[in-house]
Amino acid sequence: MTTGRHNRRQSTRAQRGTIAWCLIGMLLPCLCGCSLLLTLPVPEDPQSFLKSVETAPDSVALEIFQVRVPATDEELDQQLWQSADEQRLDLELRHELIRNGFRAGVLSGTIPDKLALSLKLESELPETKVERVITGENADPTVTRRVVQLDKSDSATIQVSSLRDKLHILMNEDGGLRGRSYEQVQAVYTMRAEAIVGQRVHLRLIPELQHGELRNRYAGSDQGIFLVTPSRERELYDDLELSLELTPGELLVVGGLPDASGSLGHAFHAESQRGPAELKLVLIRLIEVPGSEILADADF
């Protein structure tokens, strides 16, 4: 009996040894493979890890110009609105804009000489700077240029006025004039752009007033996370939303009427803090759409 048990124990130990060696033989290639997977190749160019992220394939690039012009420059005003196609906007919207102190249209091809001279338009898209001043080293530039890239889920804010302590607005509505006063108020446009078929972009520009004290407010994100950000109250003017299609090279121009004091358009586009009264023009140009090259040869 003793001898039989001893033989069985040796047989069991031998079997265990055999199994252990088999497992080691099976694991060795896997371990070698893992070591290969975890080893990072050394790049020939160390800067390759620092390359900028490529633009989303469905994004569009737009230039935003803001230019201050004398409110009494009748020649520029005449050239501008004779060249701008205001009929690209709906008739009802055009009426609403004008009776509230706004004017808007689309410039195609060659723009008026005086406006081109003021803007000093450039066609190339800057690679590094998002915003730059056209008029040189000036703390209070007459013209600024900004480039933004948007897809259909993004929006951009265009600040068109400085922060004012108080502002009284008269809205011209169907029921007559309606007045309202604001404190700590700033005029902005919210811009959205979406690429559509035919190398075109559907552009939306919504005027709004941001007013009141800065307070921490909750805002939702695409990931379902609520963010706390300091912001002011918002007064949106959906009835005055500009909605139109642009093709590459076209310019949407938005301005105010020089003789519409107290109107919403005057609050957005009138500048009178620097001496002679001025009007601020906002111009938005489409320069890149998905599947196209930057318009380096645009004729301006």
Outline the fold blueprint.
Layout: H1 2-38, E1 60-70, H2 74-83, H3 91-99, E2 102-107, H4 113-119, E3 131-133, E4 143-150, E5 156-159, E6 164-173, E7 176-196, E8 200-220, E9 226-236, E10 242-246, E11 251-256, H5 264-269, E12 270-271, E13 278-288
Antiparallel strand pairs: 1-4, 1-13, 2-11, 3-4, 5-7, 6-7, 7-8, 8-9, 8-10, 11-13, 12-13
Brief descriptors of the model:
5 helices, disordered C terminus, 6-stranded antiparallel sheet, 7-stranded antiparallel sheet, 300 residues, alpha+beta
Count of helical regions: 5
Give the % helix: 10-25%
Major sheet size, sense and barrel closure: 7 strands, antiparallel
- N to C succession of SSEs: HEHHEHEEEEEEEEEHEE
The structural domain count equals 2
Give the overall silhouette.
globular
Distance between the first and last residues' Cα: 108 Å
Number of strands: 13
Name the structural class.
Answer: alpha+beta
Mean pLDDT reading: 77
Report on the structure:
- Helix content is 23%, strand content 40%.
- The protein is α+β, with helices and mostly antiparallel strands and 300 residues long.
- Strands 1, 2, 3, 4, 11, 12 and 13 form a seven-stranded antiparallel beta sheet that branches. Strands 5, 6, 7, 8, 9 and 10 form a six-stranded antiparallel beta sheet that branches.
- Strand 8 (200-220) and strand 9 (226-236) form a beta hairpin.
- The longest helix has 37 residues, at 2-38.
- The termini are far apart.
